[in-house]
């Protein structure tokens, strides 16, 4: 089962190209800090501005660097079903352990269209699939009733729920039971989702504090609710700061401040405003992540 703190890892750039060395170093740091899974080529990994060869190269680097120590969950989604199938097949060929497949963006399919989209991918690929519901980016909400239908498919094993709506998550878990693993897609909901029956998170904040995020889930799993709650509140300012501007601008800026990567984006993403950068730096100082 995929569970715990799975980092939606950034894609470092250097002079317009993937910074392979920085990516490898980030992955090794995450492994040493206790991160439970690595998720390349997601929203935070700027997959939308990677070309196919770059997308595949990031997955390849990640699989090699991880070396089977934790699961690699490759982002393979698209607003084209055929394209998602193609990318998922390639991720399987490259050695990924599972695929994270976002709901089709821009098309705004119906619930029946969403069901057929995911079923087609599951039927025509071999990796375990984790659905990714993020209506704030895609303009479509994958409803619990549709997820319950999809959960009957043996290769659809999980969902990253990024609605921030605990009522929807509660209904989802009630309808699906243990047929599907529910993961938080919004760091501020990590602990509440565990209370409802979720198993972990695909996290933005874990990029900058992997040890603490992993320990939140470890504490919950061993029944140490007070420690889990304490970490939740400690991380709350960081969770908020990661969305002071559009993700992944703040998290990449934070990692640059920490000396982990270069502060480099691809258009249409760009550097943070100076005022927000100062606010971010203050939060990082308060958390002890920079001097």
Describe this structure in words.
- With 291 residues, the protein is of the alpha/beta class.
- The protein has one domain: Aldolase class I (TIM Barrel).
- It is built from twelve helices and ten strands.
- The strands form two sheets. An eight-stranded parallel sheet has the order 4-1-10-9-8-7-6-5.
- Strand 8, helix 7 and strand 9 form a beta-alpha-beta unit.
Q: Concise description?
A:
This protein has 291 residues and is α/β, with parallel strands linked by helices.
Task: Show the helix and strand layout.
Layout: E1 4-8, E2 13-14, E3 17-18, H1 20-33, E4 37-39, H2 52-66, E5 73-75, H3 81-94, E6 98-102, H4 111-124, E7 129-133, H5 135-138, H6 144-150, E8 156-161, H7 166-176, E9 181-184, H8 190-196, E10 200-203, H9 210-221, H10 225-241, H11 249-257, H12 274-286
Descriptive keywords:
single chain, 291 residues, alpha/beta, TIM Barrel, 8-stranded parallel sheet, 12 helices
User: How much helical structure, as a percent, in the residues?
Assistant: 40-55%
Name of the top-level CATH class: Alpha Beta
CATH superfamily: Aldolase class I
Sheet of most strands: 8 strands, parallel
The fraction of residues in strands falls at 5-15%
CATH architecture: Alpha-Beta Barrel
Task: State the strand order across the main sheet.
Answer: 4-1-10-9-8-7-6-5
Radius of gyration: 18 Å
Low-confidence stretches: none
